[in-house]
Amino acid sequence: MSTQTAAWLVLAMPLAGTLIIALGGRILTPRMAGWIGTSAIAAAFAFAVVTLVKLQGLGEEERHVASSLWDLANAGGLRVSLGIYVDPLSVLMILVVTGVSALIHLYSVGYMSSDEGYTRFFAYLNFFVFSMLLLVLAGNLILLIVGWAFVGAASYMLISYWYRRTTATAAGIKAFVINVIGDIGLVLGTFFIVRQMGVVDFGPLFEGAHSEFAKNDPSLVAGMILILVGAFAKSAQVPLHTWLPDAMEGPTPVSSLIHAATMVTAGVYLIARLHPLFEWAPTAATVGAIVGALTLLIAGTIGLTVTDLKRVIAYSTMSQIGLMIMGVCAAAYVGGLFHLMTHAFFKALLFMAAGSVISAMAGQQSLDRMRGLRKAMPFTFGCFIAGGLALSAFPLMSGFFSKDALLFEVGQRGGGWIVFYVIGYIGSVMTVLYTWRMLYRAFWGDPCPEAVELEGGHLHHAHEHTNPANGEVEDTEVGFPGAEHHIAERTWQMKVAMSALAVLSVLAGLIYLPFGITDTFEKFLEPTFADSIVTHPANDGLEVFGVILTSVLAIGLIAVAYRIWAVGEGRATAWQQRLPLLHRLFVNKWYFDELLDLLFVRPIAWFGRFSRDSFERVVIDGALVGGTSGIVRAGSSAVRALQTGLLRGYAGLVMVGLAAVLLYFLIRAA
Amino acid sequence: MTIHLSIVLWLPLAFGVLALLVPRSLARWVSLLGTLLTLGYAIALVADYDTAAGGLQYVTDRTWIAELGIHYKLAVTGLNVVLLLTTAILFTAAALWAALRDEPSERAGLYALLMGLAQSGVLGAFLAQDLALFVVFFDLMLVPFYFLTLIWGMDPDKRGAAVLKLFIYTLVGSLLMLVGAIATGVLAADGGSVSFVLSDLQQHLLSNGSQQWIFLVFALAFLIKMPAFPFHGWMPDGYSQMPIAPLAVFTAILSKVAAYGFLQVAIPLFPKAAVQYQELILIFALASVLYGSVMAFTATRLRLILGYSSVAQLGFIVLGIFALNERGADGALLQSVNHALVAAPMIFVVALLAARAGGSEDLRDMGGIAKRAPAFAALFLILSFALLAMPGSANFIGELFILIGLFQAKVAMAFIAAVGVALAAVYALRLYIRSMHNRVGPQVDSREISLREALVLVPMVLVVIALSLYPQFALGRVEQAVKQSLSAATATAGKETP
After folding, report:
1. Contact A208, A263 (CB under 8 A)
2. How far apart are CA A106 and CA A493, in angstroms?
3. Any CB–CB contact under 8 A between A24 and chain B?
4. What DSSP letter does each residue of A22-50 carry, written as one string?
5. Could A612 and B299 be called an inter-chain contact, meaning their C-beta atoms sit closer than 8 Å?
6. Where would you find the membrane-spanning parts of this chain (chain A) (predicted)?
């Protein structure tokens, strides 16, 4: 099997899974659908491994393979083929995507088992994986945009999965529309490149960019900034991030897979993929780094104040992706992608653990209600700790090495980039604090009633099913969540999936250790970034400093957080009262929702109402159709005539006349 | 293989007449048979058409009215070959819909005759290679729709007024066009022998001044027919009253005749004027995109949402045509096919939704229809995604080429048009969510799509998917002809901006 065949098979597996589950809906039992979906992704992972082996079998120079099936469009001098591009970067992505997805599918088999829409869930989930793989394997910009939009659609369908919840459908359309705005950015950005180069395939694009454009060419910069808009929308960077917290309306495995581990990191992948273009347009790269840094900080501050368990993790995701975007824009590709991978592991794990906690709380997601769950759910707690330690870059955890590598590479560039290096560490401070705030509040202290009930061997069930977001009463049929809750302690599929990710969260750092101890990861990615024009000069002092600083911050701040949220009753409130304005800003999420509403939603809605109620009636119907409606209004006789068939006669006359003329001349012609 | 275009052209009408003569219970099936045979003929035609050779093929040319120089000249070209197939597909779907649902319940023979006449009219407008013949068919294809609306329209009290509006509006357009056509023939002859054959007229282009006013006359007629903003005054009432199956073909394919008219008639015959008025037409198109989209997400009646969405989509098509470059016009023709293939099944979806919402076609009476109808929901969702031109659909490739063409011609306009793309996502998803999702409406009776309904909808969705997998099917066939259609205009533009 060749490299490209293996890669095509990676794509084919989830597509086949989607089709089998969707078309076999009536024949398959829900259980079977779940297992078919999971096996399809496991098979895709197996083929991803084969792709990896085959690719490594090629010489370093040949490790970029393009293959296409047919032309989607080839007109007006523009050719768009259905083609893939396989190189170390895309192979890394397909491994992470299929690996994590397989585990989350397995988790879902247990977690979603009482849900009425079980079959549909797996069809969507398989479709998502297909789309994500299409995105990372796409061999040209247009197909990448197709994958890009498909993941957006899958994300929409899964956010609105409980489709009778109005909060879920509202969140779905919001996510979809913001992502469409991103898609448009991508498309328009592509236009700037196509206008100049006339090609969309990655190979020729990367080779030709330097000769077709001058360095920092205004039209290249404009194009790349528009492409960044796409990356910002998908990766929830300010100000296009407001959909991500709302996306938590989706079932927790969805948050874990799409809104933490895979889809939202697509922006990072995109920038890494197009690095030859971004490096040639340094202004655009700087813009990207600034937005990433801003997101890192803003999301961190919101994460510190938000009280919904899933949303804390969501803001954390936003913040971490900000860090990655900042990294890859600063040409810290290896570190950025390494962090992308470890983040996929520990963030997926954190969401899975959160799902288990939420189940134990019978659907409640508020941290205010949780307390002392440690003893009631030891396995979930353990996983939360593993994920939390990795997220806060605790020494020797995977997140420690990846964050360290990322920030070190940024620091290596020196000059103005040091600003971003410092911001990265400020972000780290907040990361540790919000992570442990969440952990201490949920698991420490006196057990809440639900925890006590669980310790007594009984899983809490609410008397009445309600939407936690707005308290509306729900039934448990299709379109609403199912009746039963499932926690990791009692569901083996969840336990297996979480254990695997916990191990990865702890150990994945080993493939890329500092001071050159291991460099497997860097060596693997080297062929993709061999053409990079940015150099990373050695700086041993900075490397040592980084490792020490990261360690000290993690250990020290976990202790501080313990004082504030675990034992220091009232200390958090005291801080809130000391900084009321700042607290209000953070709690209201920096008013981004209100701002976007004011700038875009309201004007368009107003224009719509004006068009419908005034313009359409007065101008279109009144002035322009004036003659017509005038006839109708003034001549009530005409209306009466209509009923007696005058108009019918009139139209008939026209037709008969036409027919007669036609016939006459037809006969004459013959 | 010999293909006689007169056969494919008059076959639908012949079967319409036949349907009038056979027993009433058979009329719908005879009509269906007619559309199926036409479809078969159209498929053979597309398969046989030599794309590499290009130009006019299977030409039928006879002098019709010698004194006036009017020819009965038909031909298949790259411009119309895919549109002919699309027409055949959509009329087949409409006939199938009528046959399977026993619609209309009364005077089925007359209904079949009118639909047959409509199809022959549309095919004739696409095939005509003579300006006068084009005008005749352009008017002829509208006539059956007056009757269809008048006799089987939705609301007996309102359909008369709606038809009157439609009639007067389109009559104005038709008369203008007739005047324009006659003037073109006479002025082009310049005292010599008059000919309305398009290829002759292209040899004798009019003077700059004449081109200008005649172009505007044609443009106005086409913009009304589409309809484009602000000439869409007939649309809300017309769409509200037309019966479902006629509306499906009307919105899908009749509007495309107008778009086709720009490329077939207006631009090749009046190239200087086309270049001169490029910006004016683009502004109307841009306004159609924005206004149509905004209205589509303000409206609550399903037909109006689709009607205004058509205004917006036709706006995109005109943007592509008047980018006056190959990419834009290629995209416009592809998008004409795409929109036709999506708009028609969407109209059928409206009927299915209404049947599940206590007969109401208003979004406010819907909600939660997906609950017992997962297969219907899936079909509807696929169509919605295609309607909003999601990447991966053929509609996306169409819009992509349109916008890239526009981008090359007028950068700023491409950016404004892109807003329309985002708005399309809003109205298409709003339509889907508020009917299928959310809390189940009080009058809603959610039930799965029936076999009969599926027999119409599933093949159409499959066609949409197939074209999405291979949009080059259409693009490859139109490319050469588009280049020719634009050649005179691009030459003019090239001279002006050396």
Report:
1. no
2. 6
3. no
4. HHTTTTS-HHHHHHHHHHHHHHHHHHHHH
5. yes
6. 6-25, 32-53, 89-109, 121-139, 145-163, 175-194, 220-240, 252-272, 284-306, 318-338, 344-364, 376-397, 417-436, 496-515, 544-565, 650-667
pTM above 0.80, yes or no: yes
Asked if A230 and A581 touch (Cβ cutoff 8 Å), the reply is: no
pLDDT tens per residue, range B439-484: 888 888 888 888 888 999 999 999 999 999 999 998 889 888 888 8
A80 interfaces chain B, CB cutoff of 8 Å: yes
Tell me whether residue A578 is in a domain. no
Chain B residues with CB-CB distance to A181 below 8 A: 422
pLDDT digits (tens, 9 = 90+) for B292-329: 998 888 888 999 999 999 999 999 999 999 999 999 99
Residue A6, φ and ψ in degrees, nearest 5: -60, -40
Q: How far apart are CA B277 and CA B287, in angstroms?
A: 16
**The complex's ipTM?**
0.90
> How many domains would you assign to chain A?
1
**A616 lies in a domain?**
no
What is B124-161 written as a DSSP string? Answer: HHHHB-BHHHHHHHHHHTTHHHHHHHHHH-S-TTTHHH
Angle, helix A309-329 to helix A333-360, in steps of 10 degrees: 180
CA distances from A667 to A133, A173, A280, B70 (A): 64, 60, 72, 14
Radius of gyration for the alpha carbons in chain A, expressed in angstroms and rounded:
28
| Strands of A291-372, DSSP E | none
What does A553-599 look like in DSSP terms, one character per residue?
A: HHHHHHHHHIIIIII-TTHHHHHHHHSHHHHHHHHTGGGHHHHHIII
How confident is the model at residue A651, as a pLDDT? 55
- A350 Rama class: left (phi>0) / alpha (psi -120 to 50) / beta: alpha
pLDDT digits (tens, 9 = 90+) for B258-295: 999 999 999 999 998 999 899 999 999 999 999 899 88
pLDDT digits (tens, 9 = 90+) for A361-371: 888 888 888 88
For B52, phi then psi, to 5°, come to -65, -40
Contact A530, A391 (CB under 8 A): no
The list of chain A residues with pLDDT below 70 reads: 25, 618-670
Helix (H) or strand (E) holding B462: helix B451-469
When pLDDT is cut at 50, 70 and 90, the band that residue B498 belongs to is very low
Mean of per-residue pLDDT scores for chain B? 89
CB A469 within 8 A of CB A249: yes
**Looking at the partner chain, which of B70, B147, B298 has a beta carbon nearest the beta carbon of A608?**
B298
Q: Which helix (H) or strand (E) holds A359?
A: helix A333-360
Residue from B409, B391, B217, B231 nearest B329 by CA: B409
Give me B176's structure tokens: 């203008």
Distance of CA B438 to the CA centre of its chain: 33
Is residue A259 in a domain? Answer: yes
State pLDDT tens for residues B326-353.
999 999 999 999 999 999 999 999 999 9
Nearest by Cα to A345 from A404, A386, A293: A386
Residue B315 to residue B336: CA distance in whole angstroms: 11
Contact A411, A523 (CB under 8 A): no
Kindly identify which residue of chain A lies nearest to residue B300, measuring between CA atoms.
Answer: A612
Question: Which structural domain, as residue segments, surrounds residue A505?
Answer: 3-461+483-558
Tokens standing for residue B187: 């002025």
> Which residues fall within 8 angstroms of residue B21, CB to CB, at 6 or more apart?
B109
Q: Which residues are CB-neighbours of A113 under 8 A, at least 6 positions away?
A: A30, A31, A34, A482, A484, A486, A491
Provide the greatest CA pair distance for chain B.
Answer: 72
Instruction: Name the A residues in 508-537 with CB < 8 Å from any B CB.
Output: none
Q: Tell me which chain A residues have a C-beta less than 8 angstroms from the C-beta of B312.
A: none
Identify whether A636 is part of a domain. no
CA atoms within 13 A of residue B333's CA, in its CB half-sphere: 36
What is the mean predicted confidence (pLDDT) over B44-54?
A: 88
